[in-house]
Design brief:
The chain has one domain. The two termini are 25 Å apart. By secondary structure, it is mainly α.
């Protein structure tokens, strides 16, 4: 399959078939404008994401992604952020009637099938080196926990707030890497951590600390979102301990752990999806795969600092979709908190080496 199909025909089919479901199940009074915004943004972004060559089998240790081409890595990162935000819209839509763990399970099954296909196509063993399997399983467990918390936060929080809190994970990664891996934290890293956590406090706006009316953000839901960011950071730190393993093997262990771990949580509260809900669930898996391909491609073409900074467009997209589809509102507290979080994480990302960029390839 040519990579451009993932950002072209398949993407258009997904938008045409799934967005009417989002529109019909969205907030009362929402018009076709939300769908029009998404279509327009996708067309503008994908106009520049061209020149991607065919994905072919690769020998062990080599990337199966297209070789670097003339297309801008920044534009691919923007497309990845766009499709991750579409995934968030679909998760929130499915979560109106389906338990979040059921959504995690279906996504895990879909991505497991895709991961197996990619590993087989690359001609490598999916299990990795024996001495690294413990860490690979641990990475999958942390990824499962992060995904579960993140999807629950998408269901219970406005889209912008849920995505914003999730994007504090680079801050927690810096803290955990200093503690667990002995990596040095300079004054810039300490300042970024303080600024980011202050931004989260502004988004949550607890009346006990700031006075006035309490935030519409549920403290319990915000803590769930923070737990997701923390688990994402643990997953990233674990990846840093896995040296010399093929990236596809690391990715494979994520759904390999997620699918069985979710079963005992999803089956007792299983709600059989309607045909339209099955379509939305399939869209979640497809949108995630499109996003991951684009973001990984962008990380191939751009330095990690610049590429990961562009990934924070996901928060901007999520805010737009929240207003367009779900009638959500952004107040001055949220905007101020978002400014602190995004500024601190961008500064933190620009200070990291390009070799760390592969770790930022997913929303988890």
């Amino acid at each position: 399959m040519r990579a451009e199909v993932l950002t072209g025909d398949v993407a258009d089919v997904l938008l045409v078939t799934v967005l009417p479901v989002v529109r019909n199940q969205g907030a009362a009074g929402v018009t076709d404008s939300g769908a029009g915004i998404i279509f327009g943004a996708r067309k503008r972004l994908s106009r520049y994401a061209v020149g991607m060559s065919t994905v072919r089998s690769a020998p062990e240790g080599a990337s199966i992604l297209p070789a670097p081409a003339a297309a801008s890595g920044v534009r691919h990162m923007a497309l990845g952020a766009f499709w991750f935000s579409v995934m968030a819209v679909l998760v929130k839509t499915a979560g109106r009637n389906l338990p979040s763990q059921e959504i995690v399970l279906v996504r895990g099954v879909i991505t497991l099938a895709l991961s197996v296909a990619m590993v087989v196509r690359a001609g490598i063993s999916p299990w990795g080196a024996r001495e690294r399997r413990g860490l690979l399983v641990l990475r999958g467990i942390f990824g499962f926990a992060a995904l579960s918390f993140f999807y629950a936060s998408l269901v219970h929080l406005p889209l912008a707030e849920a995505n914003l809190i999730q994007y504090t994970n680079p801050v927690f990664t810096a803290l955990l890497a200093a503690w667990l891996l002995g990596e040095r934290m300079g004054r810039r890293e300490v300042a970024c951590v303080a600024a980011s956590l202050t931004g989260v406090v502004l988004v949550m706006r607890p009346a006990a600390l700031l006075g006035g009316a309490a935030s519409v953000v549920s403290p319990q839901a915000a803590l769930i979102a923070l737990s997701g960011a923390m688990c994402s950071a643990l997953a990233y730190v674990t990846i840093r301990r896995i040296k010399g393993e093929h990236p596809l093997v690391i990715v494979f262990y994520f759904p390999l752990d997620t699918a069985p771990a979710t079963l005992p949580l999803a089956l007792p509260q299983w709600v059989w999806p309607t045909p339209l809900e099955w379509l939305v669930l399939a869209g979640i898996g497809i949108a995630t795969q499109i996003a991951q391909v684009n973001m990984t491609r962008g990380l191939q073409l751009e330095p990690a600092g610049r590429a990961t900074a562009v990934a924070y467009l996901q928060v901007v997209f999520a805010a737009v979709w929240g207003v367009a589809f779900f009638g959500e509102r952004l107040d001055a507290w949220i905007l101020a908190g978002a400014g602190l979080v995004l500024a601190s994480t961008v500064v933190l990302a620009r200070g990291r080496r390009a070799a760390e960029g592969v770790e930022a390839e997913t929303e988890v």
